[in-house]
Amino acid sequence: MRVERPYQTVHLVCGESPAGSLKVGLDRHQKVIGFPDFFGDGPVRHLDQKSGQRQRLEWLRDHLNGQDDYFEKEYEKRLAKALKEIEAIPREVPIVLWSGENADEQTGIRYFLYLIREKENVVSIINTTIAFKKLYNTETFQEFHPHTGGVEPEKLQRMYLGNAARPLTEVERRRYEQEWESLSDMGGTLRIWKNQQVQAVNENYYDSLILSIAANMTDDQGDGFVKAARIIGEALGRIDDVVSDMFLEYRVRCLVYSGIFEIKGIPKSMMHYTVSMKEE
């Protein structure tokens, strides 16, 4: 049986890649839990309950092209492991939540705070977007990091050691918990970060951008068809928020299904097919 070493602080972050960066940047006395999900898209209704978790998994399986059958083979196991680790956090250990200015992480920290609502631990938040700006931006150097995953490990370490973590008051914790309840009741499958709030929008929110890019992009083979991956890559570069490429690929397929795009190839991944605007 593997015995876990004692740790001083627990760090909660959305995504396994940002968790990897934190593990590299922080010392071995820090425990990092990377939640294996992206909260910007997909249903989050009653996600704090088993029924909501099953509903989300079914939606992800039915709509998104995960690599290597991730949603069929890995997602449920990793989710259960992360939830178990969160539940097992000892009451005397401080908890640090990491989040940038984006719908994924801002939804995530509200979810985490709801999950730990019965715990009396000291809970702090590090806003990596704001902390990066304060620590590194100057009059001659300006860089914007909307997501924790875009920040290098040594800079995450400096944020933590530089006391960027801000402890939450009881009132603030209750407010975040209530905001999670509102998000959970709201339904919908796409969220954006706007005016310092997580807002639910229609899942076709980015369709007009996708169509505009496709209409103005030079085709790949001289046949009028453009690789779906090129359209999605261009869209990611134009969207201010952090969006899942899998969700945008899903929307490209929806435009195919609705007859707006023609398709060549099999849409088993964004690299395997091309699309063209259907002629009137």
TrEMBL record:
Domain DUF1835: 10-128
Pfam families: DUF1835 (PF08874), DUF3658 (PF12395)
Top-level taxon: Bacteria
Segments forming domain DUF3658: 164-273
Record-linked InterPro entries: DUF1835, DUF3658
Name of this protein: DUF1835 domain-containing protein
Source species: Jeotgalibacillus salarius
